[in-house]
Amino acid sequence: MEETPPVRALVVHVAFKAGAIKAQAPDETSTLRDETARLDEAEGLALAIDLDIAGSEIVTVARVHPATLIGPGKVEEIAEAARVQDVGLVVVNATLSPVQQRNLERAFKAKVLDRTGLILEIFGRRAQTKEGRLQVELAHLSYQKSRLVRSWTHLERQRGGFGFMGGPGETQIEADRRIIQDRITRIRQDLEKVRRRRELHRANRQRVPYPVVALVGYTNAGKSTLFNRLTTAHVDAEDLLFATLDPTMRRLELPHGRTVILSDTVGFISDLPTDLVAAFRATLEEVLEAEIILHVRDISHPDTGAQAADVAQVLAELGVDEARRDRIVEVWNKADRLAGEERTSIENQAMRSDNVALISARTGEGIDTLLALVERTLAESSSRFRVTLEPTEGRRLSWLYDIGEVLERHDGEDGRVTLVVRVPPEKVGPVEARLGASAQALDSTERRSAAE
Q1: Is 218 annotated as a binding residue?
Q2: d(CA 254, CA 157)
Q3: Residue 176 annotated as part of some ligand binding site
Q4: Coil, helix or strand for 107?
Q5: Which annotated residues bind GTP (predicted)?
């Protein structure tokens, strides 16, 4: 069977001047970004769905045009380029209203995909699990419902993207709202079942004292490469945006023997569609439950500061507020791409912070430092108790081993057992309620001694 040639596309990044940002781009980090880097990112998104990029450019907008977003002169210029280069798709790296998208398609005589649509298309192709595909489909349908210009024939597909790039229904002008809404309702019901199942799995995990350590970060920051390095797993770790979509969890044994569950999550990105954040909330609940969040950053990227701000914004949307930020460890990845004065400066910044590890997931540099930092952070967030049990309290002894980490044990000649036990925050209440005066909370000095 002959392969379909890739769609030829133009990539247009819209750079808003200060006056236009408030009108069209509420993202507060927009002014922090390098526009060339944003164009590169848009090209990366296009390559992620195998487009043949015929050309790309930055279009500066001083005043938003309600009908087309960009000015009429530039619209004509792009239309001519699309005609000359036989382009079938124009990717506009901005958020377009349905009217703007329709008017641009008429002017360009080609399909137009805005940033939200492009991200949804990538997610549609990358999701592998049933849950992942349901989540993406829900976000896509919510987006599509407001457009009334796209087909819904992708609902019959078993794999592939979500129909932006062609298909038998592309000539439909308006999707059937009732059918779409019925499908949205069914998907939400299915996802509610998934959520309840996840809660059961989470409850089962909580019976075992394995804290969750979640990897988060901007897309292509190197999370999956780090996940593979730490767990010897084989998660896809391509140099592509959104190479990982479905969450993966593995056990990881830390240097001093403590076991944790390491969770790899979908990458974040600036202007991540709100519907997509909501759709993936069930998956990202692992982040909320995590004892530690490892925020992986591509420290070599020119927009690393703005990317970090985007991740912080999504975490805030998920409910990780400022009061819980002490659980976040920053992992400055791709140190192997730094050299000279830049590397020296970054190294000095990392050394001055007590929650930063400078690493290279690709070469293994700094991994030992990172693991030591994870151990220290876990120890600081845990509580320690000295517990003395009578010979007849075998069940309590077994329970302490189940819910905590025994740091010291002394078996007396009279059969009594004295333990120093470290327990996660959620187990402090049960320990105090069940053991009462038998459990003595250690002061800070004794804690440091027990941790060492």
Answers
A1: yes
A2: 43
A3: no
A4: helix
A5: 217-224, 242-246, 264-267, 333-336, 360-362
361 is in an annotated binding site: yes
Query: Two tokens at 31?
Result: 């002014």
pLDDT of residue 66: 92
Query: Residue 368, annotated ligand binder?
Result: no
Cα gap 225→124, rounded to integer Å: 22
* pLDDT higher at 172 or 408: 408
161 is in an annotated binding site: no
Is 271 annotated as a binding-site member? Answer: no
Q: Quick check: 51 and 20 in contact, CB under 8 A?
A: no
217 annotated ligand binder: yes
The structural domains of the chain, ordered by start, are 8-120 (3.40.50.11060), 127-192 (no CATH), 208-380 (3.40.50.300), 382-451 (3.30.70.240)
What pLDDT, on the 0 to 100 scale, is given for residue 322?
59
Q: How many residues does the chain have?
A: 452
87: Cβ contacts below 8 Å, ≥ 6 apart: 8, 9, 10, 54, 81, 108, 110
pLDDT at 60: 92
Q: Checking DSSP bridges between strand 89-93 and strand 111-114, what pairing results, if any?
A: parallel
What pLDDT digit, counting tens, does each position of 203-242 carry? 665 555 578 898 999 988 998 899 989 987 555 555 455 5
pLDDT digits (tens, 9 = 90+) for 88-144: 999 999 989 889 999 999 999 999 999 988 888 887 777 766 777 787 888 888 887
